Amino acid sequence: MTDETTPARESLTQILGGRRGAIDASIPPAAFVIGWLVTGRSIAWGAGVAIVVAVLLGGYRVVRGGKARAVVVSLAAVVIAALIALHTGRAEDFFLLQLLSNAASALLFAASIVVRWPLLGVIVGLLLGQKTRWRRDPALLRAYSWASWVWVLQYLLRVVVYGLLWWAGQVVVLGIARTVLSWPLVAATVAVSGWVLYKSLPPEHPGLRLAREPGADERPGT
Length: 222
Hints:
It is elongated and about 60 Å long. By secondary structure, the chain is mostly helical. The chain contains eleven helices and no strands. 32% of the residues are buried. It has helices at 2-5, 12-16, 19-38, 43-63, 68-88, 96-114, 119-127, 138-168, 171-180, 183-200, 212-218. It comes from Amycolatopsis saalfeldensis.
């Protein structure tokens, strides 16, 4: 019944979403830079402002029905970033965790494609309730692999930009880049990877939920 009422080819943007999370992630770093500047380049004050803003933002999201786990993870990332900057005494090191996490994400996505478990497929499959059944479809597996390269490029772009700015100690520009390369880049990545995904599928292919039909036939009760 669900498959009959669901459009054959859903938008990847509708499935992944993520705009609110990407926007929220860029606010504490901006607060850090503002607090750092206003207080005469005090890392302690900048870190404190970033943490307070992250706590207030997380509380707002929980009240609005957001997932507590996601809020805790986001808050933990801000606290760790602040501790790193406080420990090293370098304001630019507030962005070091973000630089390293993007490098790790680029490596994970690339490795997943090489071993034929493209992470984009894993993520979308989980969101659609397909688990790993999508891998039974060679066309879908190939399409997810091509589309996952777009995500690799996204992370590599961040690594290059953040890395150069971090190396140069450009704290203010890092804050700006952190904002520009959050939601706008995520939106572009989802749109482009969605285009690549569907462009890689045969014209007659029903879309992302194809792998769900054989599973439904094999297990009528699931």
